[in-house]
Amino acid sequence: MTDIPQYATFAKIEPLNKGWSSDKKYYIETHAGERLLLRIADIAERERKLAEFEMLKRVAELDVPASRPIDFGECSGGKSVYQLLTWIDGEDSQTVLPTLSEAEQYALGVKAGEILRKMQTLQTTPMNSEWLNAYGAKIDRYIENYKNCGLTFWGDDTVIAYLEENRHLLDNRAMCFTHDDYHLGNLILSPENKLFVIDFQRFRM
User: Which of the 8 DSSP states describes residue 194?
Assistant: First the structure.
C-alpha cells in the first residue's frame, strides 16, 4: 500500500470488513480532509478491475449518485491493484428502510428505479448475436437442469415451448450496462436522505 502515489497524503487508514467482495477495503482520510475509499485486489484481477474503473468513469459522466473514480494502478510491488474512489457517507438501505414510513420507502424505491434506468442507458458493442449466444446457452442449461432435477410442475411444457419459440427475439439486441448486484445492501442512504449506489464489482453488459 505504501507505494500508492497518494499514500503520503493519507492521515487515517481504517480497514473495512463489510461486504462479500474479496477486495481489501479501507476508509481513508487525507491530511486535506478528503474522505476516500481504497480497494485493493490481487494482480490477477487487473483487467477486470481496470474495466470496472473505466465503467465507473462512464457512470460518473451520467451524474449517477455513486463513488467517483480517482485513481487506479498497481501496488504492493506489483502484486496487487488498487482503486481509489470518493467516499459515500451513510447507511445501507437494508438497515434504514424498516425505520421509514411506507411513503418514504416507496419514494426511495422510485428513486432506485430512476437511478437504475439511467445506468442502463450505457450501451456497448453494436447490436449483434452475442446476447443470443450467451443467454441462449444459459437457457439451455436451465432447461436441462429442470428436466434432470426430478421435480416438475403442471404446464411446464408450455413454459419450455414459449422459451424455445421466442429465444430468437434475443438476436441483434442492444447490449446495455447492468449493475448485476442491485439490492438494498448496495444502496446507501446519506444523512441528507440521498440515495447512492455502491459496489460495481459484478457489473456486466
Answer: -
**How many Cα atoms are found within 13 Å in the side-chain-facing hemisphere of 103?**
0
CA gap 123, 104 in Å, rounded: 32
Q: Identify the three-state secondary structure at position 48.
A: helix
Strand 24-30 vs strand 35-42: parallel, antiparallel, or unpaired? antiparallel
**pLDDT, mean over the chain:** 90
Cell match 459484478: residue? Answer: 202
- Cα 189 to Cα 97: distance, rounded to the nearest angstrom: 9
53, three cell numbers:
474503473
Three-state DSSP state, 26: strand
Check residue 21 and give its pLDDT. 73
* Structure confidence by residue, pLDDT tens digits, 15-42: 998 766 788 999 999 999 999 999 999 9
Cell numbers standing for residue 143: 432447461
Residue 139 C-alpha cell reads as: 437457457
β-pair partners for 187: 197
Torsion angle in degrees (nearest 10) through CA of 61, 67, 70, 73 = -110
Hey, what's the cell of 136? 441462449
AA identity, residue 169: L
Rg (CA), the chain: 21
Compute the distance between CA of residue 39 and CA of residue 84 in angstroms, rounded to an integer: 7
Q: Which residue has the cell 428436466?
A: 147
